[in-house]
Amino acid sequence: MQPKDGDVVVHCGHIDAGLKHLYELTPPRPFTRPDHTKGLAKFLITCDACLATASQNPLRVLIRGDATWDGDAPLWEDPTVH
C-alpha cells in the first residue's frame, strides 16, 4: 500500500514524530477544513502518541491537516502500514 501522486492524505500534525502509522481509508473519508472547504482523504498518517490517545482506533485520531501526495515523495517503508 502506497499513496499515489495526487492522493489526499490527512494527518495528526506531528510530521516530525518518530514512529508513524499509515492507514488506507476505504472507503475514502470526507473531511472539512477550517476554511470550510471539503476534501476526500484516501490515507491517514498518525504518530504513535495520537494513535494511543485515540485508543488505537485510526478513525478517532484528531486530524490537524491534510496534504496532497507528491509522486516524487519517497516510498512509505515503515513497518507500521495497516
A few lines on this structure:
By secondary structure, this protein is mostly beta strands. It contains one helix and four strands; from the N terminus they run E-E-E-H-E.
Describe the structure.
- There is one protein chain.
- The protein starts with 7 loop residues before the first strand and ends in a 14-residue tail after the last strand.
- It has 1 helix and 4 strands, in the order βββαβ.
- The mean pLDDT is 87.
- It has one helix at residues 48-53; strands at 8-11, 20-32, 38-47, 65-68.
- Helix content is 7%, strand content 38%.
- With 82 residues, the protein is mainly beta.
- β2 (20-32) and β3 (38-47) form a beta hairpin.
What order do the helices and strands come in, and which of them pair?
Blueprint: E1 8-11, E2 20-32, E3 38-47, H1 48-53, E4 65-68
Parallel strand pairs: 1-3
Antiparallel strand pairs: 1-4, 2-3
Properties at a glance:
single chain, 82 residues, mainly beta, four-stranded mixed β-sheet, 1 helix
Task: Say what oligomer this is.
Answer: single chain
Please give the order of strands in the largest beta sheet: 2-3-1-4
Unreliable segments of 5+ consecutive residues: none
Question: What form results from the Cα inertia axes?
Answer: globular
User: Which structural class best describes the helix and strand composition?
Assistant: mainly beta
Largest sheet: 4 strands, mixed
Give the SSE string: EEEHE
- The N- and C-terminal alpha carbons lie at a distance of 8 Å
CA-based gyration radius: 12 Å
Number of strands: 4
Strand content: 35-45%
- Rounded mean pLDDT score: 87
Q: Count of helices?
A: 1
Approximate helicity band: under 10%
